[in-house]
Every structure is written in C-alpha cells, then in structure tokens.
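Can't paste images in this forum, so I'm doing it all in text. The chain is below; anyone willing to post the predicted structure tokens underneath?
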Amino acid sequence: MKKRILSLILLLFALKTIANGSKEKEIDSILKQTKELHVAAKMAPQLESAMKALNLSIEYGYDEGIAKAHFWAADALSNIGLFKEAFNHLQQIQTTDYYKKENSLQSETHRLKGRVYLGLRLLRQAIREFHLQIASTGSLKGEIQIKSYLHAYGNLSTAYDWLGQADSVLKYSQFQLDILPKLHGKDSAMIGLGVYDDLGTLYTKKGDFAKAKFYLEKSLELIEQNKIPIYFNTYTYLGNLEQEKGNIKEALPYFYKSLANMQAVGDRNAMRNQYKFLAEYYQYYKLGANKASEYNIHYNQLNDSLENENKQVLDIVLNQILKSKDIESATKVSKSVAFSIMAFVLLVIAITFFIRRSRHNRMVLAEKEGSLQETENTNRALTEQIGENKFNNLVDLAKSNNPEFLILFSDLYPGFIQALKTVDANLRSTELEFCAMAFLNFSTKNISEYTFVTVRAVQVRKNRLRKKFDIPSEVDFNNWMRELVDKIDQPEVID
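Text version of the structure:
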C-alpha cells in the first residue's frame, strides 16, 4: 500500500513537471513573437504580448520567462514614453535568478535603464547605468560584445551632449570609431552612420565647419555604398551646417531631402517636427509667408492626427497595465486554490491509508474533516486580508512616491478617477496622483514629504487645481475631492 501511494505522488509530480515544460515552450514562443513586434516597432502589441508572457511565467514559476517578459515590457513602455512604469519593470528584472547569471541580460538591462533615465532627463543617473553596461559587457563575446560597447558609447555621447560637455562627446565618439571596424555588415554601416552624424553635429556646434563637412560626407558615402534606407538625419545635419555657416537658402535643399526621406519611410513623428521646423525657418528668415503658412498647415494637420493616435495608444497601454494587475491578483488566488486542491488530494490519500490500517474510521475522518475546515477558514481569512492589505499597500506606495501608486489607486477607486476626467479629460498623471493623495486626506505636509517637494510647492499646486476645478477658497480642498464622485453622480435638477 505504501508503494502505491508513493508511486501516485511521484506520478502527480511528474505530470506537473511535464505540464510546466510544455508551458515554458509556449511562453518562449510568445516571447519570440514579442521580439518580432519590437523589431516592427509595434509598441502597444509588444506590451500586450510581453504582459501575456509575464503572467504565464509568474503562474508557472518560469524565472527566465519572468526576466525576459519584464525586459520587453519595459522596452515598449519606454518607447511609448511611460518611463516610470518602464523603470518598475526593470527593477523587477534584477530580482530574478536568471538576471543574476545571464551577463547579456545584465548589460541590456543597464542599457535600457540608462535610456529611461535619459527620457526622464536624469543625465547623471543615465551615465552611471551606461558605465555599468560597459562593465557587464566585458564578459560577453563576439559581435554581441562589440554592439554593446558601441551602444554604450553612443548613449554616453548623447548624455554628455545634453550636458554640454563637448570633450566627453568627442571622447566616446572616438571610442566608437576605434572599435567600429571590428563589426561587419549592415549593422556596422548603420552604427557608423550614427557616429559620423554625431561627429558632424558636434563640429558644427564647435564652429569647425571643415571637420563637420568631412564627417557628414562620410555619412553620405555609407548611405550610398550600403543603400541605407533611412538617412533623413544626415541631410538635416547638412542643412544645419549650411545654416550655421550663414547659407540660409543653401540649407533648404538639404531640409527638403530630409523631409522627402521621412515621407518615403513613413516616419510621421519626424515629418511633423520637420514641418514645424520649416514653417519657423521660412518665417524667421522671411523666405516667404505663403510657404511658412503651407508648412504650418501640414504641421497642425499631422500633429492633431498623431496626438489622437498617441492618446488611443496610451489608453490601450494603461488598460493593459491595469488588466495585468488583475490577472496577477487572480493568479495568486489561483495558486492558492491549486495548493488547496493538491493538499486536499494528499489528505484524501492519507485518510484512505489510515482507514485501511485502523478500525477507528469515524474518529480519523472527523479529525481530518476538522483539519480541512481549518484550512478553508485560513484561506477565507487570507482572502479577506488581501482586501485590507490593498489599502495599506496603497498608502505605502504613496509614501515611497512609487509609480504604481496611481495604478493601484485607479483599481481601488475607479469612480474617483472617472469623476476627475469628467471634469477635465486632459489631466496629466501627476495631477491625478496629487488629487488621489488629497482624496486619501493626506495633509499638505504629508504630500510635500512623500513627493520630495516643498510645502510651498504643494500649496501652489493646490491653488492651480482650485482654479482648474473652480473650487471656492472657503471649501476644504481634500473634502471637495472626497465628495467629487457624489457630485458627478447627482442628477441635474431642472426647474
């Protein structure tokens, strides 16, 4: 009998292992599709795919899948501009065992975290991450190592350029030139194009027009020799060079070629910026009011279209984030249920074993049923505790200025967020976070402490929101926020 029970237990674990292996293959397939969406620059589908892989990986305890899914989610969010959310995923990567042993993921995580800091204009933190990337890259091999070095040096050039440190920009650009010959093929040409463009721009700013032209002409050679399809930056920099030299009209053909390439490759964001630039260029240098007006019309039309599209994408992304939180919570409950079922199965086996060995069947059954009832009571208590803990977690997230505060708040108080957006649909996330803290009845001093700003800054923001929401000065700001949902839900009285 003992052997049969042991065999049954081993069979259960074997079936679980086989099922997990099948799920890991499914997750790997989803991650492969996620990477393909990244290459195609389809950010919202990429995020959706990454979150699907992440939820499955968490459910089945697949550590490698968790790390990679967090990475691709962070990549999509950073490209969309949701840097705080991206940073949170990057922090989660570093808690996995796979990250700790995989040098290539460490290098890429530091690179992406540096890019997020660049997006937040935290340049010193970005520089630190790029240096950590370089340190991790030393253990890599072959072209992977070369590309990582080139990306790190290129990003450091960008950071130092924004800091206005031309000598450091030149230093890291030279590092790129030194190792670029080690890379072959199309990747070498594309990275080389970026390096030559950066150097051309640098020497244009320094007023060394001869060197600027030398490097930009090398960019043109690479474009011609390798049939590089996207080259509008090079022509923009050539136009900038002529403009700095005082050749205002001679710069225009380069700007036109840049715009034509943007249109050819379908980069609508670049087109929008170029239309605006040309409108201002014609107006500033008085080259023709009609042309300035024409480009301004093109800019406004495209800008309106892109803003609507970006808003739709952001709505989709935020919904996906909230949905992922719901799935994560459901997964935890599902795990608890699965554990209870397995415990129940083992309990039944144990009961059967003791029934066969003992004549005291009723006493044993009563004891085991009591144990099962205690387990169910414990699970019920845990479920109730989860609800209580959500509010405590919300307060803790606010105190630490965590970017997930607004996400969890929206989950707990969706009516308040909807009511705010009914009053003003264009509220920024920072304004929503501030109103959420007021809804929770945080004092001015609390908000100042949790958001790392002065009390005066909090009072100024309150006054601005009073004007935006038309809150009378005699009305308590926090009370108004807490009563907002009731105000919105009240039917309008018609005399």
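The mean pLDDT is 82. The first helix runs from residue 2 to 39.
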